[in-house]
Amino acid sequence: MSMQSNVGIAGSAAVSGQRGMERAAAVIENAAGEVLQGTLDAISRDGGGSSRDTVTLSDEARSASIEGGLLDGSSARISYAANIRVVKASDDRFHEMINIGLEYVR
C-alpha cells in the first residue's frame, strides 16, 4: 500500500468519524428535547406541580417520549464515543505517516 493510499484511508476515516460525531450529537440534542417535552407534558397533566419536596413518577412521566429520549440519548452517547475513537485512530495513523516521511528526509 502506498503512502498516498494510507493518507486517503486515514483521511476518509477521520471524515467519517467526524460525521458520525455530528450525527450522534444531533441525536443527543433531539433526545434531550424529547425528555424535556415529556417531562413538561407530565408536569402540566399533574396540575403544574406542588410545593412538596418529593418526586414520584406517574404513568404519564414514564411516557414513550421520556423513555425513548433517554434510550436514544444513551445509544447516541455510545456512538459518539466510538466515533471519537475512529478520529483518534486516524490521527494516530497520520502522525505515524508523518514520522515515517521525516525518516526519509533525514
Question: Secondary-structure element sequence?
Answer: HH
Unreliable parts: none
The span between the termini is 22 Å
What is the tally of beta strands? 0
Q: Mean pLDDT across all residues, rounded?
A: 81
Structural class estimated from helices and strands: mainly alpha
Largest sheet: none
Tally the helices: what do you get?
A: 2
Gross morphology is: rod-shaped
Q: Roughly how much helix do the residues carry, as a percent range? A: over 70%
Features:
106 residues, 0% strand
Describe the structure.
With 106 residues, the chain is mainly α. Helices cover 80% and strands 0% of the residues. The protein is built from two helices and no strands. It has helices at 3-45, 64-105. Helix 1 runs antiparallel to helix 2. The longest helix has 43 residues, at 3-45. The chain is rod-shaped, with a radius of gyration of 23 Å. It starts with a helix and ends with a helix. The model has no long low-confidence stretch (mean pLDDT 81).
Topology summary:
Layout: H1 3-45, H2 64-105
Helix pairs in contact: 1-2
Short description:
The protein is mostly helical. The chain has helices at residues 3-45, 64-105.
